[in-house]
Please model this.
Amino acid sequence: ANYRKAILSTAWKYSMRLDVMDNDPVRLIKTKSTKPRKVKWTRDQVVSFLDTAYGNFKWRSIGLIVHMAYDLAQRVGDMRVLTWDEVDLDAQRIDLTQSMRGADVHLPISEALTGMLQQQKEDFGFQPYVAPKTTPVAGAYVPYPVDQIDDAINQVKDAAGLPKNITAMDLRRTAITEMVEGGADLAHIMQVSGHRSPDSVTPYMVNTFSGAKNALSKRGKT
Model:
């Protein structure tokens, strides 16, 4: 009896397997493509965030991380672990290897950002990280952990009265979109962003009033 049950069970499983192969239920499920996120920060929102962060010493490094991410069009994650040996304040440049793409980028530092970095180095130049947590952990200064950086940025956003829909990851998109709108050469944008293909920059080319105005202004007069 047990032998007969085993044979019937095996036959049933084989039949079910054939049915799944012939009538794959998964292919009947319609998948929805995820729309690319298009949220951007305004210049006023960036200024408000930085004013709030730099106005409180405990948020100094958070302000610097956001400042660098926006100014240099880099990911917050790379700015979080940036080290002083990647920064040349005399030459006003940063040379780093992006963690996600592995691209080497060489970035000029603006005057405003240089000033903040110089002040930061006076206070934190004794340890390797450019923007560590402002209070030591177990006696050592360390970068903000991945699971804490968003919370820290949200604290500053709340204090500055900024909307919740703008996030840290939107800073890079904002910066690249501004370069596109400003008419920067695509090859030059890729040298900043680290993208290897022009197609990868396409998602940043959104339709905006300022972009349309800039394009129409370049038309010849009739």
User: Anything to note?
Assistant: The beta strands are 87-88, 93-97, 104-108. The chain has a mean pLDDT of 85. The two ends are 94 Å apart (CA to CA). Residues 87 and 94 are 5 Å apart (CA to CA).
